[in-house]
Design a protein that fits this description.
2 copies of one chain form a homodimer. Chain A is of the alpha/beta class. Chain A has helices spanning 14-26, 48-52, 67-74, 139-150, 164-175, 196-208, 256-260, 307-321, 351-356, 405-418, 422-425, 442-454, and strands at residues 6-10, 31-35, 76-79, 82-88, 93-98, 104-108, 111-114, 118-120, 133-135, 156-160, 179-184, 212-215, 219-224, 230-235, 238-241, 244-247, 251-253, 284-286, 293-294, 301-302, 335-339, 342-348, 361-369, 380-388, 393-401. The N and C termini of chain A lie far apart (66 Å). At the A-B interface, helix 8, strand 21, strand 22, helix 10 and helix 12 of A face helix 8, strand 21, strand 22, helix 10 and helix 12 of B.
Chain lengths: 456, 456
């Protein structure tokens, strides 16, 4: 009888747990162990800001599955509070430190999945390690932030960084009654993702809800008060009262273990994998926030941290680890963000990205009703489409509106995946009834304007 | 100088007005006349049931544009209350009856658009013409139904037909305080569109809200009371109190004029057109509910009455009438229906249609959260996907749920248009954030189950 394969998974959040579960389903005999350097596994990082804001009420609901469930229902062993210290790809072992009891173990593997995720970029400005200044990446971060608010330790919050986490935290801290100031170094919010015109709509909503937004402004320093915790933030040469500092200056892939094991790191700084999610070392896979992927529109190496992508890559890695032949071809850079009472989403290339990628671009921005304008609850949605003039190929979309942003972005993401040319999109047969859409729908109205601007 | 082309449009609802406007935009010199046998143009038929229910409050909001607006802003002449009596394709004239003042005119044309729409099927059961028994197709129908309810002439309504109009009317009449009984001859609601399993979900919602649903039941007769208006409906051998009868047994394309002019009628009973929306007679176009189209999945002639399709076809016809070269390749049979507090939608082929079309089909039905299950407002959505086992090609979808049905259906419609194979759909990069979606999303979970059932 063949000895069962031993699968070791480093990292127990989205990609790691998904891959382990999939490998178990496809190979009931495999010996599977997940190593987590945290006291839990399988938590939903995307819900943290809403937990702080009280929108998500129960802390337990942030855990998708318990370690016991993995053990009892899936026969997957979980080593909590254990940190992988090094990978030996020759011996096929991982050296693991027991963070709770001390000591190290050396675990052998036949297949290894690196799912070490990403870590927040913490700038090195003075005071960034003061009590009361936090990134938001783990449940522990969320616990600490909630604790500081619950104890009344913060009336004013300063957020460094106008990306996803920064904007989500602005909303949720405002909901908790704090005054919120947000510093963004670039000249517009979400600078890597949105063109300035769509970003201006986002900023207007954030400011209308009462957040002080300072773009082109660099956070310089945090100072502490008499209790030793943060009391003042300095930015753009001015001082701001600050009982809570949030560092939301982005995340980077966590690849040190892989790099030290001489596994190839790609140009984005994440671990290079093939479409089967296998790294440069045979038998070693990577998935989730630590892994590089391909942008399906630009066809270039791409990296973006997202729980949904981690789940999909984990599934593919798990299937292939169990002997399957599944592929993950890449992503579109799709994302969506709640912005108080509005939403904003994007997929594919922005106008700037398309221009940088050398496309002869044409863009069209339309504003339509979300649903029949005469039907109760109708609102407005603005959609910017970007296309290539020569090939009539759609390249990307950005949307902002009261509602239906997720629908419009998902529809465009599906169109990009299918490579549907712009003229065909103007005839797309989408679901129409007044409570759900306008007769043509936002995507078609946008495609019609694109067509017109292309002179078709 | 070339004489301007004369365009005559028969029909002033969606396709006719859209085509006229598009032709005007593309050819400022054209002489354009719309003939309408009603006292108005450009009304939104899809809003009628909601106007009766009081959800849409203002009658004026059902008119997209006024005749004056067409005349003054677009230089389009409108002949209201004029009915086209015959088309002479040899002389290129249309004989028109003046319904208000009597008499007939003969109007010459260089280009003709037939946009005569559809008409309700009225069964010939006794009593169907009694006062208080109405189809719902025009504003006049809606006015008459509202009037009867407003005067207190109806406490119980009987609806004949469990399709779109029947279910929309059930909801809106219940909202107006009527007891509602619905008769459907087939064994399930929406029989032509939904498989029995998804239809059962729809029925459960309709019944839970208080509608008495009788499937497999044929309406036999309406009887009048002492005031000469309807008082009783007989169906399946039983009598039902009935102060208002709604005939919702479907619609058929209105093609008599075209048929008499020897313009080719297709196998669906609608006017055959090519992809430019031109009929068998050169210079004569047809668009909207009177025109046949192609089903993009089955590739067979197809007919379905829908305002959104009429708008798109009208746009293509108008562009081509003005000398353009645009095509309308077909539809997916996409539709969506509000079912009280739920929604149901479909696109592509149902399991029955796919089976009849000879596909080696595999279907998968999944139920997921609409959004992050821990996020406020989350609900359930059920999605049934149908695919072809051999080619791994997706064929269609049916959905029912609390929310996000429009998104899921539009996403699948875009995937069908792009021909994205099932394995690629399992990796689709859709917009994820807990307020809008689950990490994988309903479509991907469905595609994963399809893949599994295909043994991929």
């Amino acid at each position: 009888m063949k000895r069962p394969l031993r699968l070791l998974v480093i990292g127990g959040v989205a990609a790691g747990t998904k891959a382990a579960s999939k490998a178990r389903r496809d190979d009931p005999a495999m010996e599977i162990t997940i190593i987590s350097d945290m006291p839990y596994v399988s938590f939903i990082g995307c819900g943290l800001a809403y937990y702080i804001g009280g929108v998500v009420e129960r802390r337990e609901s942030l855990f998708a599955r318990s370690p016991e469930k993995f053990r009892d229902e899936h026969n997957i062993a979980i080593l909590l509070n254990h940190r992988a210290e090094s990978i030996n790809t020759y011996d096929q072992t991982v050296r693991v430190a027991d963070l709770k009891n001390g000591g190290t173990l050396t675990l052998p593997y036949d297949r290894l999945l690196i799912a070490t995720g990403a870590h927040p970029v913490i700038s090195d400005i003075p005071g960034v390690t003061l009590p009361g200044v936090h990134p938001l990446h783990t449940i522990m971060d969320a616990d600490a932030i909630r604790d500081r608010i619950d104890r009344g330790g913060a009336r004013q919050a300063c957020i460094v960084g106008g990306g996803f986490i920064g904007i989500e935290m602005a909303e949720n801290l405002l909901r908790r009654g704090l005054e919120v100031t947000l510093f963004e170094m670039a000249d517009h919010l979400l600078p890597g993702l949105y063109d300035p015109d769509v970003s201006a709509l986002i900023r207007a909503e954030v400011e209308a809800k009462g957040v002080r937004v300072l773009t082109g402004t660099r956070a310089e320093r945090f100072d502490s008060g008499p209790d030793g915790t943060v009391r003042t933030a300095f930015a753009g040469g001015r001082a701001y009262p600050c009982g809570l500092g949030i560092i939301a200056t982005g995340v980077r892939p966590t690849v040190q273990l892989a790099r030290e094991a001489r596994i190839t790191i790609g140009p984005t700084g994440a671990i290079r994998v093939d479409s089967r999610m296998e790294t440069s070392v045979r038998g070693v896979y990577a998935a989730g926030d630590c892994a590089e992927t391909t942008h399906l529109v630009s066809r270039k190496p791409f990296w973006f941290s997202l729980g949904s992508t981690a789940n999909k890559q984990g599934r593919i890695a798990g299937a292939n680890i169990a002997g399957g032949r599944k592929t993950f071809d890449g992503v579109l850079g799709t994302s969506i963000l709640k912005v108080f009472d509005k939403a904003t989403g994007r997929t594919g290339l922005s106008e700037r990205e398309a221009s940088e990628a050398g496309f002869n671009l044409v863009s069209a921005t339309v504003t339509t009703s979300t649903i029949g304008h005469y039907y109760p609850g109708s609102g407005k949605i603005t959609l910017k489409l970007v296309a290539d003039r020569g090939s009539k190929r759609l390249l990307g979309a950005q949307a902002f509106g009261d509602d239906k942003v997720d629908k419009v972005i998902d529809t465009v993401a599906a169109l990009l995946t299918g490579g549907v040319p712009v003229p065909e999109i103007t005839n797309l047969d989408l679901a129409y009834s007044p409570p759900y859409a306008t007769a043509l729908g936002t995507v078609l109205v946008g495609a019609e304007l694109l067509e017109k601007k292309m002179g078709i």
